[in-house]
């Protein structure tokens, strides 16, 4: 009998385990994959390390929000990080790609750098930044503060990000530059709430970093720490049944027939996947219909290139390029995010490169019943065609890339589905919809008294969003004021 059983060992599961283990609880994490970490996992190709889902993080400067959370979790000092270009952590380009518009760190620097390209829009850019600063104040846990409510009321009254951005300027290009890194939240122009845009962008404007040699070091550090507190991780253990009775969890059943018992359970699965393995009637029909009707975010096509030694320069910026002057709905095959991962063996040259572009699950749905390395030649041909298109497009901006490539690898939403457990390979789980905010908001508390939810479907995705979500879940268990005081004491 455990105090808490956590389903899933992604960032949220590991943070929940860390918080509760620190409080003296006996915790068990159950993970279907043989390797814990979820989207924090890395994979190795020809001696190069590639991230599955964490390509850069924000807020890691001393005293900033993610720094403070990681300090409390005892992992900050062990992380190897490299700061991105302070004057252009992201560069946005369109069509021919000649002009690259910078998104810079620091509020004043953000205005300064972008105003050099849009001198007549300086005042409007400054107003945009003030709006961002004011919006984040409405979210207590973003700033490690407590107000009178767990979820701010403002959460439920949001305009869509595209409409709000257009309210600051009539310059079409500037509008699309300000929304230029929206793949960070898989933005949908008519639906994505402005708070999603504001919280994610503010975090990177504070400071932006790459994790040297991969993001799995976050998972490794958390796993090492929770091990010291006696937390058990059952890897390679798929949960096939969640059993509850009279609105109380009884146990979970694993694929091998083992039953795991706990006084409390935290599920980090997609809520729809969770309902799939629960008995019918565990929740009322209204809640069930809400969960199954959740729209998921877009999937991605991932291009992973191993590079010849000292042939391609390391770039301290991330590049978001669009086939048209439209950062919301440009042609997917020819629009991309491109970056060179940070490696410890060189500050000057990259040994690999990654490009990501949107891909709808419908494009690979015909292979949905297949598994890795067993999808057939037609699938491989499909991937190769997309690889060639993307390499051709990226080479227009970086002509030296083609001659630097050693080997090419790629992934589709099917890969993300199979390795991370994401429903339909969705990049960021459930889509937030400003038109129906209550429908796309999932509370960490459920009507089953000892079952809680966490993960990217709660509040917000990304490293910071999932961290806040885990604190929200644990705060629902331990008490918010108590937990926030604990975190503040540590920092």
Textual characterization of the structure:
The strands form 5 sheets. Strands 8-7-16-17-18-15-19 form a 7-stranded mixed beta sheet. Strands 10-2-1-14-20 form a 5-stranded parallel beta sheet, with helices on one face. 33% of the residues lie in helices and 19% in strands. α1 runs parallel beside α8 (216-228), α3 packs antiparallel against α4 and α4 (122-136) packs across α7 (194-206). The chain contains 16 helices and 20 strands. A hairpin with a 6-residue loop joins β7 and β8. It is globular, with a radius of gyration of 22 Å. The protein has helices at 11-22, 65-72, 107-115, 122-136, 161-166, 172-178, 194-206, 216-228, 271-276, 285-292, 377-397, 401-404, 413-420, 437-440, 462-478, 480-490; strands at 2-7, 27-30, 42-45, 48-51, 57-58, 81-83, 90-94, 101-103, 208-211, 232-234, 239-244, 249-254, 259-260, 262-267, 299-307, 318-322, 336-339, 352-359, 405-411, 451-453. The mean pLDDT is 94. It is α/β, with parallel strands linked by helices and 491 residues long. It has a domain at 2-46 and 216-295 and 426-490: FAD/NAD(P)-binding domain (3-Layer(bba) Sandwich), CATH 3.50.50.60.
């Amino acid at each position: 009998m455990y105090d808490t059983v956590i389903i899933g060992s992604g960032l949220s599961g590991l943070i929940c385990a860390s918080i509760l283990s620190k409080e003296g609880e006996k915790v068990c994490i159950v993970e279907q994959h043989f390797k814990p970490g979820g989207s924090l996992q890395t994979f190795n190709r020809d001696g190069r390390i590639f991230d599955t889902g964490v390509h850069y993080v924000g807020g890691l400067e001393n005293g900033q929000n993610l720094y403070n959370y990681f300090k409390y979790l005892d992992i900050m000092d062990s992380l190897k990080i490299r700061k991105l270009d302070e004057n252009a952590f992201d560069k946005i380009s369109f069509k021919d790609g000649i002009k690259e518009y910078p998104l810079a760190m620091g509020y004043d620097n953000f205005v300064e750098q972008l105003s050099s390209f849009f001198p007549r829009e300086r005042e409007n850019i400054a107003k945009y930044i003030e709006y961002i600063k004011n919006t984040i104040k409405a979210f207590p846990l973003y700033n490690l503060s407590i107000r009178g409510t767990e979820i701010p009321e403002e959460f439920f009254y949001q305009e869509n990000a595209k409409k709000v951005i257009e309210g600051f300027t009539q310059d079409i290009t500037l509008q699309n530059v300000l929304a230029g890194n929206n793949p960070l939240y898989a933005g949908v122009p008519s639906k994505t709430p402005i708070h999603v845009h504001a919280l994610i962008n503010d975090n990177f404007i504070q400071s932006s970093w790459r994790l040297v040699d991969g993001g799995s070091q976050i998972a490794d550090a958390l796993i090492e720490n929770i091990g010291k507190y006696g937390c058990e991780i059952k890897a390679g253990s798929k949960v096939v049944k969640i059993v509850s009775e009279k609105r109380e969890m009884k146990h979970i059943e694993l694929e091998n027939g083992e039953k795991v018992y706990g006084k409390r359970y935290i599920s980090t699965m997609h809520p729809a996947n969770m309902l799939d393995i629960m008995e019918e009637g565990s929740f009322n029909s209204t809640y069930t219909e809400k969960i199954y009707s959740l729209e998921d975010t877009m999937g991605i096509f991932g291009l992973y290139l191993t590079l010849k030694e000292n042939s391609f320069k390391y770039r301290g910026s991330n590049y978001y390029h669009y086939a048209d002057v439209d950062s919301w709905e440009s042609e997917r095959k020819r629009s991309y995010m491109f970056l060179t991962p940070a490696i410890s063996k060189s500050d000057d040259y990259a040994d690999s490169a990654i490009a990501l572009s949107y891909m709808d699950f419908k494009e690979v749905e015909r292979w949905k019943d297949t598994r890795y390395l067993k999808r057939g030649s037609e699938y491989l041909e499909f991937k190769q065609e997309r690889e060639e298109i993307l390499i051709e497009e990226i080479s227009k901006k970086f002509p030296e890339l083609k001659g630097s490539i050693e080997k090419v690898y790629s992934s589709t939403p099917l890969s993300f589905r199979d390795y991370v457990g994401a429903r339909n390979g969705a990049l960021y789980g459930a889509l937030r919809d400003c038109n129906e905010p209550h429908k796309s908001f999932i509370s960490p508390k459920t009507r089953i008294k000892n079952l809680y939810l966490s993960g990217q479907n709660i509040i917000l995705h990304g490293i910071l969003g999932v961290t806040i979500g885990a604190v929200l879940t644990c705060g629902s268990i331990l008490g918010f004021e108590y937990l926030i005081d604990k975190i503040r004491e540590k920092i």
